[in-house]
C-alpha cells in the first residue's frame, strides 16, 4: 500500500478498513491471507477488519472459494457522486417514456445490503401517483417485490448472505410473513424463471410489479411499477405491463453497459 503522511487526528482502523475495500475493488475476491499481504497488515488484524466489514454489509464471504467479495452496498459510499450519473443519462429518459405509455408510476431500485433503496421514480409525473417524492428512501429487502426480484437474480452465495443478514437482525421475519425459509427460497427460483414478480406491498393499499435490470456483471437494479389493487388484479398487471417493463429494462441494461464502457475508456 502507498505510504501516507501521519496525522494525529487520523483513525488507523478506518484507514485500514478503507484500504481493504480498495483492494477488494480491484480483485475478484481475496482470502484473508491475500488481503493481509496486499494491505501489509498482520493476518489477525485483517481478519477482524474483514469480519467488521462483513457485519456492516459491505463485503461477504463466498463459501465456494472462501474469498471475500464486495456487496452492492459499497455503492452507497458514492451515492450522489458520479455513480448516480447513470440515472439521468441512462435510466430516467427510458423511465419517463415508459411512464407516458403505461401511465402508472415506475421506479428504479438498488440493493444496499439488508434493504433496497429507491433511487428515482416517475411518481411526480404519473396521473396515478401515490406520493410526490422521486426517491432516496429505503424499502425492506425480503418481503417486497423489488427485494425479492433482486434476490432471485443474485448468485446463490450472495442471496444466502443477504438473507442471513436480515434474519440475524430480524429472527422472526419469516414467521411473521407466514412462510418458511425453504419455501421462500423455492419461490425466488420461480421468480427468477418468470423474470418478474407482482405482489401486494406489505402494509399499504398498493401492489408492485418488478423486473430486473442487468449489466455484464449481473443483476444491477430493479424496476418496479406501482398500482392500486382496486384498479386491476396482479394477473391483469402482469398480462398488460410485464412485457413493456422488461423491454424497457433491457434498454436500460444495454445503456448501462455502454455507459460503463465509455467511463472505463
Describe the structure concisely for a colleague.
Helix 2 packs across helix 3, helix 4 (86-102) packs antiparallel against helix 9 and helix 5 packs across helix 8 (181-194).
Topology:
Layout: H1 12-25, H2 32-39, H3 43-55, E1 59-62, E2 67-70, H4 86-102, E3 106-111, E4 115-121, E5 137-140, H5 145-153, H6 156-169, H7 173-177, H8 181-194, E6 197-200, E7 207-215, E8 218-227, H9 234-264
Antiparallel strand pairs: 1-2, 3-4, 3-8, 4-5, 6-7, 7-8
Helix pairs in contact: 1-3, 2-3, 4-9, 5-8
Folded structure, characterized:
By secondary structure, the chain is of the alpha+beta class. The chain folds into two domains: 12-70, Winged helix-like DNA-binding domain superfamily/Winged helix DNA-binding domain (Arc Repressor Mutant, subunit A, Orthogonal Bundle), CATH 1.10.10.10; 76-264, Beta-Lactamase (2-Layer Sandwich). The protein is 47% helix and 18% strand. The protein has nine helices and eight strands. It has helices spanning 12-25, 32-39, 43-55, 86-102, 145-153, 156-169, 173-177, 181-194, 234-264, and strands at 59-62, 67-70, 106-111, 115-121, 137-140, 197-200, 207-215, 218-227. The strands form two sheets. The protein has a six-stranded antiparallel beta sheet, with helices on both faces. Helix 2 crosses helix 3 and helix 4 packs antiparallel against helix 9 (234-264). The model has no long low-confidence stretch (mean pLDDT 89).
